[in-house]
Amino acid sequence: MSERSSRQYRGYRMVEADLVKELAVAFLVVLGLVLLLALLFSSPDEPTLTAQQVALTHPAELEATAIHILDGKNAIANYGPPYNHGTGSVQSLGPISPQAWAGVTVPLDAKSVFVLTPLRRVSALDPALGQALAAFQAASPAQQASWENAYQSALDHARVVGGRLLVPASASGPLPVMMQAYLDLARGGTLEASINLNGHVYQTDFTRALLLLQGAPLTRTAAGQELLGPEWGQMKEPGNYPGAVWLWFYTLLYQIPPFLTSPAPDLLAGATVSVVTLIFLLIPWIPGLRDIPRKVPLYRLIWRDHYARHKRK
User: Fold this and answer.
1) Residue 126 CB neighbour total at 10 angstroms
2) pTM, whole model, 2 decimals?
3) Which residue, 120, 109, 105, 122, is CA-closest to 70?
């Protein structure tokens, strides 16, 4: 085969190329661009907030969370469906309440799941804790409430010295022993694991552990990262990084009346977005709306070169 014929194929001129080399160069260029763009525009990967972290940095806050779980004042204890029959977070618009219709699908006794059961699991190794638990559970609800109020008042004056939380003495019965054991369990990093135990060898449902720190710990962390509702936290990443921009419509609704003042803002915002989305989907079948493009000929401005040529013809 002559050199001329080897460089042509059915009339097309052939050019020698090293495919492997081209692929390698393209890969390296794309990899470099990805790394550069990730360095410039990626958002920080904040570590998961854990009970261990809270116990080490804000021990009084973790104990206060446990006390509020025991006295039924935390957000989950009275949340409502799907966790329990409370009404603290149930939203409705007149007779419309999908949350109530669904009912309790993830039954959760906050007092038992988050505090008493984890302590009971380690009480076999701590006789003093076992006695304290027995005394607490044997007491009447009024007595338990008295102890919880006394310990909460003492926590307001607690100090951290040498890494230990020093809580002033109070008429709080067995709670000091229970709370110290609870704090030790969290500091050891096993509190969430104890909460998640459900009798299975492999655990894939972490719902209960994720609900543990509702309230002060999560609010404080969100405030530090500027992720609270008034800061448009629904579509932000920590700090000044943008997040899920497609949520801007939801976020905007939460900043204006009546969503801002509604007792059911989530349900109202969800219903509004659903209706608006449905309208957009049905535009081709809605008389009047489907005629807007013809009555407002914006397309002629966009395709003005085409219409100018068509007019000259």
Assistant:
1) 16
2) 0.78
3) 109
